[in-house]
Amino acid sequence: MAKYMLIMRGTDESVAKMMETPFEEMLETVGRFNEELIRAGVLVAAEGLDDPSQGVVVSFDGEAPVVTDGPYGETKELFGGFYLIDVASKEEAVEWAKRLPAFPGSKCEVRRVPGIEEFPQDNEWIVKERAWRERTGQL
Amino acid sequence: MSPAATDGPPGAEAARRAVEAVWRIESARIIGALARYTGDFALAEDVAQEALAQALVSWERDGTPASPVGWLLATARRRAIDAFRRASALDERYAALAGPLAEGQFSTGGSGAPQQPDDLPWDPDRVDDDVLALMFTACHPVLSPEARVALTLRVVGGLSSEEIARAFLVPVPTVQARITRAKKTIAAAHVPFELPPPQERHARLGAVLSVLYVIFTEGSTATAGEDLLRPDLAHEAVRLARTLAALLPAEPEVHGQLALFELTAARFPARTGADGQAVLLEDQDRRRWDRSAIRRGLAALGRAASSGRALGRGLGPYGLQASIAACHAVAPSVTETDWERIVLLYEALGRLAPSPVVELNRAVAVAMDQGPQPALALVDDLAVSGKLSGSHLLPGVRGELLARLGRTTEARAELELAARLCRNARERAVLLRKAAALDADG
């Protein structure tokens, strides 16, 4: 078994469509999909992000970081949220990704999440991170 | 190119993996729905397997269909109708199949458009009951224990006969024969495809839990062979236990079992060394334990306790075993483990579900809590009873206790006996290492 992150990326177009969809309907569609993941015993974690226009972007182009509103008004892919699932194979992760309730114009990246046990266990920073994970019961 | 791309025929291997992935996710719902429609569990499994075989051929040739599930279900349904035609069984069941389930009514709305319940290939209000009924059928008491395990992994878990055979180190034809025989037995005994009636439910749930437990235990300590662990098999048991917990949220023991599995599986990363040798609990690097699994296990244990309280019950056998696993999971080291509590939990477990293995484990906990002498007395009583004769477990523990008491010669003989009886190569190596270490000391 391995953990995969399904990274959902929308565009302004798909975000706009989402905003037009009645909230109740969205809840039901997404809820139904989430329930499938739970029933299949593969869901580990999931979060979705707020309206991108409420966010800010910190850019590192010049001498000092520059803060602008956004991201919005671009047709680039916008990170919208993620699922973390525990499945037997990459193909299974892809199969779940294909079932995402997604609007046209959006994409989903399927990426494996390496476990902390894959890192050198004697590295002081890995030791510190382990201690934090232990204290907080993090993934 | 992704293996599941639809824009051209992918390679045979990629197609096979894509089909397997869909199958693992869907097999229970597909077979469950078919079993309910046809009223014939064996037929449902047959036609589902035929559809799977067909998919392996067609998807490689034509690419994966837009709705893999709809395709599998429609194909299986066609096969079922053909089978009914061949049997000239033009009865109500055939009418039911040919009527409302006419082709084209199956689509999963996989385009991402919001789905209406009637777009689904099965009735969402019934699918949970179908999957549950499938679990109860696959674990039915009319079947032999081996058959229950094979059938559960195949119809509920979506594993192939080859995968099951690999997991249990038995020949593929053996697994196929077990499954064929199991289906015939279910048909011969007229086992209805339904949820057990309330008065049978508790006992029947126990049978399902036992099967999942066998699958998990085989994955977490392989009874034979070269590998200590078969994590894929253990994880499949975890996945099935999660499904069962989602379907039966009011059942305390379902959560107790899930907690036990999560907490035990959390130790997997630390249980084998770099070269695959077994690492004992006291030597394990606890930093390698999977903290997220521990967190999930403790949460499930909390649900086991609260759902038990709601029914006016304490923890059951699985909940107690999970509590013991939790004592280990939260302890920073062997010496800092709450052994006294573990002894009490084993005593409670011994009263609810008496077994010689529980007695032996209690003796180990007593040794940690009070020292080797009182523990040896318990182990000797067990040895006299002859309940564990032929198993390597008892001489393994006895040798360990004798060594701690400085009775080296006897200890070595016991450990060597244990090694001779042990069928797992990795465990055997540990026992021989211990015996050899005594030579160095004594």
From TrEMBL, chain A:
<dbReference type="InterPro" id="IPR011008">
    <property type="entry name" value="Dimeric_a/b-barrel"/>
</dbReference>
<dbReference type="InterPro" id="IPR005545">
    <property type="entry name" value="YCII"/>
</dbReference>
<dbReference type="Pfam" id="PF03795">
    <property type="entry name" value="YCII"/>
</dbReference>
<comment type="similarity">
    <text>Belongs to the YciI family.</text>
</comment>
<protein>
    <submittedName>
        <fullName>YciI family protein</fullName>
    </submittedName>
</protein>
<feature type="domain" description="YCII-related">
    <location>
        <begin position="3"/>
        <end position="112"/>
    </location>
</feature>
Automatic annotation (TrEMBL), chain B:
<keyword id="KW-0804">Transcription</keyword>
<dbReference type="Pfam" id="PF08281">
    <property type="entry name" value="Sigma70_r4_2"/>
</dbReference>
<dbReference type="Pfam" id="PF04542">
    <property type="entry name" value="Sigma70_r2"/>
</dbReference>
<dbReference type="Pfam" id="PF20239">
    <property type="entry name" value="DUF6596"/>
</dbReference>
<protein>
    <submittedName>
        <fullName>RNA polymerase sigma factor</fullName>
    </submittedName>
</protein>
<keyword id="KW-0805">Transcription regulation</keyword>
<feature type="domain" description="DUF6596">
    <location>
        <begin position="204"/>
        <end position="305"/>
    </location>
</feature>
<dbReference type="InterPro" id="IPR014284">
    <property type="entry name" value="RNA_pol_sigma-70_dom"/>
</dbReference>
<dbReference type="InterPro" id="IPR046531">
    <property type="entry name" value="DUF6596"/>
</dbReference>
<feature type="domain" description="RNA polymerase sigma-70 region 2">
    <location>
        <begin position="29"/>
        <end position="88"/>
    </location>
</feature>
<dbReference type="InterPro" id="IPR013325">
    <property type="entry name" value="RNA_pol_sigma_r2"/>
</dbReference>
<dbReference type="InterPro" id="IPR013324">
    <property type="entry name" value="RNA_pol_sigma_r3/r4-like"/>
</dbReference>
<dbReference type="InterPro" id="IPR007627">
    <property type="entry name" value="RNA_pol_sigma70_r2"/>
</dbReference>
<feature type="domain" description="RNA polymerase sigma factor 70 region 4 type 2">
    <location>
        <begin position="136"/>
        <end position="185"/>
    </location>
</feature>
<dbReference type="InterPro" id="IPR036388">
    <property type="entry name" value="WH-like_DNA-bd_sf"/>
</dbReference>
<dbReference type="InterPro" id="IPR013249">
    <property type="entry name" value="RNA_pol_sigma70_r4_t2"/>
</dbReference>
<keyword id="KW-0731">Sigma factor</keyword>
<comment type="similarity">
    <text>Belongs to the sigma-70 factor family. ECF subfamily.</text>
</comment>
